[in-house]
Give the backbone structure.
Amino acid sequence: MSTRRQIFNKGLFLWAAVIFITGCATGKLDQKDTESAGMYENRGLALAKKGDYEGAISEYNKALDLNPKLATAYNNRGIAHHMKRRYDEAISDYNRALEIDPDYSDAYFNRGTAYGYKGKNDEAISDFNRSLELNPNRSEAYNNRGLTFAHKGDYDRAVSDYDKALQMNPKNANAYNNRGFIYSMKGDYDRALSDYIKALEIKPNDALAYRNLAVAYERKGMNDQAIVNYSRALELNPKDASSYNSRGFVLFKKGELNKAISDFSKALELSPKYVLAYLNRALALERKGKYDQAISDLNKALDIDPVSVDKIISDPKTALGADPKDARLNFVKALLFEKLSRVSEAIEAYKKFIENSPPDYSTYVEWARQKIRVLEK
C-alpha cells in the first residue's frame, strides 16, 4: 500500500490562558465579612495555582456565600470550571461577574476563551472585541481573537491579530506558534519555521511547538529534522499519540519500517481508536509483506469509524486518495464499501484491485474474486 504523504498531519494552535484575578470586594458589607470573603478567595487562588481546582471552587463558594457581589470570585470560579473543561459552568460564572461589573475586561476575555473552546466563534470574537475596547494593550486577547478568526478560516485577519499580539508583547510564544501555523497552512514553511523557532526560544519546553516545527520540516521534505523535533515533542509529552503517529510516518517514508510500526503501535496503545494510526500501520505492515496483519488493521479502522476512512481514501489531497487506480487503495475501498453494505461499489473496487494488483498479490486476487462471487449472489 504505497503512499507519498501522511494523511491529516496537522499542527496545533495554542490558546492564551485564562486570567486569574486577585479578589477585591464590591458592595456594602461588614468589614469582617469583607475580609473573610477575601481570605476565602485568596485560598481559592492558592489552590488553583497548585492545580486543585475542586478545592478552589469550594473556597470561592465560601467567599460568595459571604459576598454575593464579589465579581472576581465569580470570574475565578469560572476559571476553575474552565480548567476542568466544564465550559458551560465557566460561562455561567463569567456572566455573573459581568452582571456585577459590566466593564470587567478580564471576564470578557475569559468568557471569549470559553466560547472559543466550545466552537462559538462569533460569540468569542464579540467578547475579545469588548475586552480589547476596555484594555487595548492585552496581547493575549489579540492572540485568542486571531485564533478564533483562524478557526473561521479568516487567515489574513488572524495573522493581523497575531502581529498585534507580538507588537504588544514580543515574548508571546503562543502568538508566534499560531502565526507559524497559518504560514504553514499557506505553504510558507520558511516563515513558519522562523516563528516556531522564536516560540521555542521563549518557551523551550513547549511540546506542541516542537510538534508544529516537526510538521513544517516534514512538509519541506526535511525528514531527519522532522524526526528530531517529533522526538523532542515526545520527550516533553510522552502521551502524545499524534506525535508517535507522525514520527512513525516519517520513518515509514525513510524505509525504517520496524521503527515506524513501533511508533504506530505506541500511538494505538495511547489512543486505541486512532483510525489514522491503524491505516498507517497497515501501510507499513503491507510493505513488509505481512498482509494478514495489514488487513486486520484496515478492518479495525473500518470497525471504529468507516465514515472517516471513507473521507481519507476519497480525498485526492491525501495519500490513499491520490491515485484512483492504485490496487491497494481499491482494496481498502472494497473493504469499506462492503462494511457499509454498498455492494455494487464494493464489487467495482474489488475488480479494480484485481486489474491493477502487483504479481505478489496472487493469493489476495483469488480472495477478491471469491468476494465478488459472494457479493453478486
